[in-house]
Amino acid sequence: MGRIAKFFVWVLMVLLFLCAVLGGALYLMYRMAAPEPSQVTASFAGAELKSPSVTWTTPVLGDLFERTDETQGSVMQLGTIGTAVPELAVTGADVVSAEAFLDGQSVASVSGSGVLTLPANGTYTLRVTAQVTPKRANGPHGTYVFEAEFTLKAVPQITVEPASALQGDVVVVRVEGILDGSVPTIETELSPAYFVPTDTGYEALLGVHYNKSGGEWPVTVTCGDTTETLTVTVSGASFEKVTETLSDAMKQSAAGSAAALKAFNDGRTWWSGIREGELFFDGQWKWPAATGVATVPYGAFVTDGATGEESRHTGIDLSVSINTPVTAPAAGRVVYAGWLDRTGGTVVIEHGAGIKSYLFHLAEVTCSVNDMVAQGTQVGVSGIAGYTEKPHVHFEVRVGNQSVDPAKLVNGSSAAVK
């Protein structure tokens, strides 16, 4: 019996030794399973966020065990930023959320990379949580938490687009990031202009007429305590030369009389002063006659085939068949709908912020003053009316009293429809 007892003791010691070796090996493998966190980076308002807190889980022994490592980060001091719409950019993470706190209250948040809209100046705490999900079952995964403090001293952001414009362009002036409720004002000799509210601030439209001289035109914007002068550089555009001939009978008719021209000019002066305090349109405009063919472009030098006299064309002539439906090129309010000897059936639509479309030479007007029309709403019918001898629609666009090229609004190249 003594030998049997000794044998069992020996077996037990061997088993204990094997368990110790195996346990030590497992522990060593666990400790040597170095975590390899994904490279998650983040920036806020142009500054790199550093020292995140990281929780990272790594599989051990073919996913039999998991090792979790935690690294305590620190709160980064970003100092002062000057924009109320700072951008957050995070790379290397699958799920991102961010919150900004002011006086302990959550006041702004964003999912993924994007812009946080901050409501007021002050001292903020930022918390960004970035999660890396497993790429396979029980794969490595973890969470990064970036924390930062910053002080917001924002001034309104004033931009002009395009800063380099051609004759016939529409220039857009935007003011964003207004925190004190101020309403901006604008001063410039480039074009009549005033601001209307938008979802992100205020916007004003400037018209660059075809005869506006090239060079630098200052645009001064004041918003609260901030005054900034921007520059729009105007360059000349290329304009076609066209010959048009009207019969003597037309020139001597009521439509060609000085009285008819004066009544039209008086009306256009009156219409140019009408403006709505909001923008009714959004996106590209459409041609008012879908089947029309442009025959005389904007800004063209038009020569009278009989007298040789030259004039400039303030819009675009669209050749159409008689009785073609004429529609609103963009949403707006009808400010004139009637008959003038010079332009026949005439419709003027205010689209907001002082930009208007003018539709001339209609045989019939089918809308009324103060009608709110959507893009594509029929407002008239084409014909031969007013100072013309061929069926066409004269399509003109003006910002205040400055004509601009309608084609750029229709083809989407204008800053006003981007």
How are the elements arranged and paired?
Elements: H1 2-32, E1 41-44, E2 47-49, E3 53-60, E4 65-71, E5 76-81, E6 87-91, E7 95-102, E8 105-111, E9 114-115, E10 122-132, E11 141-152, E12 157-161, E13 164-166, E14 170-176, E15 185-187, E16 196-197, E17 201-207, E18 215-223, E19 226-235, E20 241-244, H2 248-251, H3 258-272, E21 293-296, E22 301-304, E23 310-312, E24 316-319, E25 325-327, E26 332-340, E27 344-350, E28 355-365, E29 372-373, E30 378-382, E31 392-399, E32 402-404, H4 406-410
Parallel strand pairs: 5-11, 13-19, 20-22
Antiparallel strand pairs: 1-2, 1-6, 3-4, 3-11, 6-9, 7-8, 7-10, 10-11, 12-14, 14-17, 15-18, 16-17, 18-19, 21-24, 22-23, 24-31, 25-30, 26-27, 26-29, 27-28, 28-30, 28-31, 31-32
Low-pLDDT parts are: 28-34
Helix content: 10-25%
C-alpha termini separation: 98 Å
How many β-strands, per DSSP? 32
Number of helices: 4
Overall average residue pLDDT:
91
Describe the structure.
The protein has 418 residues and is mainly β. Helix content is 13%, strand content 44%. The protein is built from four helices and 32 strands. The protein has helices at 2-32, 248-251, 258-272, 406-410, and strands at residues 41-44, 47-49, 53-60, 65-71, 76-81, 87-91, 95-102, 105-111, 114-115, 122-132, 141-152, 157-161, 164-166, 170-176, 185-187, 196-197, 201-207, 215-223, 226-235, 241-244, 293-296, 301-304, 310-312, 316-319, 325-327, 332-340, 344-350, 355-365, 372-373, 378-382, 392-399, 402-404. The strands form six sheets. Strands 21, 24, 25, 26, 27, 28, 29, 30, 31 and 32 form a ten-stranded antiparallel β-sheet that branches. Strands 3, 4, 5, 7, 8, 10 and 11 form a seven-stranded mixed β-sheet that branches. Strands 2-1-6-9 form a four-stranded antiparallel β-sheet, with no helix packed on it. 34% of the residues are buried. The model is unreliable at 28-34 (pLDDT under 50).
